[in-house]
Amino acid sequence: MNTAILTKWVRDPRSGEVHLPSEEVTIMGVIRNLDRTLMKVRWQAGGDCMVFPEELEEIRRS
């Protein structure tokens, strides 16, 4: 499974929860939609969300 670190804060649109830079997330999938790349991630505390690749750094395989 791939993991990554957030580079900036991200608000989960479903829960409204804010996730801060340096939080580690699990990458569950990569999706292309209307010529944009989105990544589905799972938060450390649970739940998932779509983020843009530029919001992630240090993508690594576990």
Explain what the structure shows.
The model has no long low-confidence stretch (mean pLDDT about 90). The chain has about 60 residues and is an all-beta fold. Helices cover about 0% and strands about 60% of the residues. It has no helices and seven strands. It has strands at about 1-5, 10, 20, 25-35, 35-40, 50, 55-60. A five-stranded antiparallel sheet has the order 6-5-4-1-7, with no helix packed on it. Strands 2-3 form a two-stranded antiparallel sheet. It has one domain (about 1-60): SH3 type barrels (Roll). Strand 4 (about 25-35) and strand 5 form a beta hairpin.
Distance between the terminal alpha carbons, to the nearest Å?
A: 5 Å
CATH architecture level-2 label: Roll
Q: Bin the helical content.
A: under 10%
Number of beta-strand segments: 7
Strand content: over 45%
Strand order of the largest sheet: 6-5-4-1-7
Structure class: mainly beta
Radius of gyration: 11 Å
How confident is the prediction overall: mean pLDDT? Answer: 89
The helix-strand sequence is EEEEEEE
Q: Kindly give the count of domains.
A: 1
Which stretches of 5+ consecutive residues score pLDDT under 50? none
Number of helices: 0
Q: What would CATH call the class?
A: Mainly Beta
Please identify which CATH superfamily we are dealing with: SH3 Domains
Major sheet details:
5 strands, antiparallel
Q: Within the CATH hierarchy, at the fold level, what is the topology? A: SH3 type barrels
Shape estimate: globular
